[in-house]
Amino acid sequence: MSISASREKPRSFRAKIRIGLGLVALVTLPQLLLTLHYLDSARSTADTVAAQVTLLHEIERMRGTYARVPGLQGAATFEDVLRAERLLGELADRAISITEHYPVHVAGLRRVASAADALIKAVSAEHASARRRPVLPPTHATSPAIVPDAVTPPLLDLDVAHNTPHSGPVRPSAGVLAARAALDDALFGVVVALLDELRAENVAAEDTIAHADRNLVTLVLVAFVIVTLLILVLPGRLIAPVRRLTRAVKAAASGRSGAPIEAPSDDEIGELAAVLTETMDTLRRFDSLKRDRIIEDGGKIDALLKHSGGPAAILTPQFCVEAANKEFATLFGPTAMDGEMPVPEALRAGRDELDDLLVRGREHRHEILHHVLDLAGADNTLKRFYATVDTCRDRRARPTHLLLLLHRHAKDAADAPATAAK
Q1: For the segment 69-121, what is each residue's pLDDT rounded down to a tens digit?
Q2: Domain ranges of the chain
Q3: SS3 state of residue 43
Q4: With the CA atoms of 273, 274, 280 and 282 taken in that order, what torsion angle do they form, in degrees rounded to the nearest 10?
Q5: Prediction pTM value
Q6: For the sheet containing 368-376, what is the strand order?
Q7: In terms of CATH architecture, what is 305-408?
Q8: What distance in Å separates the CA atoms of residue 108 and residue 96, rounded to the nearest whole number?
């Protein structure tokens, strides 16, 4: 079987694989980078949302602290003022302390701290002003008309030892109301900014999810295309040529010939096909020369056997006839010429002697010359021969053929039938 292949300079199959992998990387790498980008965006969004939720909790704590501040509705005691200053101070300190963690809301948090400080000052100022107001004794509180006009009410001096409420206004002053409104606005402003950021992060998260969905669909489509190309290209470009080459080699090994097989690829498979083509052409030439040589040698052997002057034959290592002349066929009979029966068994006399002689010739490297044998063949006539046995051996000295030459002795044995001889 002949194999035709491209004789161009082969392109490495490894190079083709690298090109294919490069194309796959060129297609999938952007998608992978986009996936990493989307993951990073999602992680950043999650961190931002977590920070905003934490800040909302902080604002809620500030509002809780703000709700516990006493004395914001008027009629505050000295202890109420002290507690209000402490709570509002904690609120302001907390607002300042968390600014380093939320740089986006630094202005709003500082505004909260400033509003808390302003409210502290307003509450303290209102309480100090209330301490200087004239108050009536408790007995005259219900009957202000009986108080003489000339009486000047004394100032009520409150301290820590005398924590008696003054008769301040029921509603807080305008300064306290303004400070409270400023603090409410500051807290509300931070909450509004957080809500705006959460809305923006929600929009960004939805956008990221949409991009991620599209990227996932793209990756699935790319993977499907790659698998489809592998299914379509790999059998045709790699598996099918290898199978054709395998069938060609098997056919050549069995000696069968068939239609030419093509392997037009310019990679290692094509190069292998070209080498196999040259090898098989060489083998065909060698087989042709070998057949011609065998025919020629066979003709020479036949000529030699024909002109040997006596029975002559080429025997196998099992002493079966492979080639023989007419005299040999006459002596041993047609049964010995079928190539299956050892020639000693075709004799009627001298069977054991010839068998021993052939065994010695096969086992020893030296030829046996002019050994006298008395043989009776197909005609049952005992005759004396000079027997010569030479062995042909291969490179490992194993016997491949034996040459048996028989020449008539000068004084033949009696021509009487050898009926008792074996």
Answers
A1: 776 665 556 777 777 778 778 778 877 877 777 777 778 778 888 887 887 77
A2: 27-140+158-217, 305-408
A3: helix
A4: -170
A5: 0.42
A6: 321-324, 312-315, 399-408, 382-393, 368-376
A7: 2-Layer Sandwich (3.30)
A8: 10
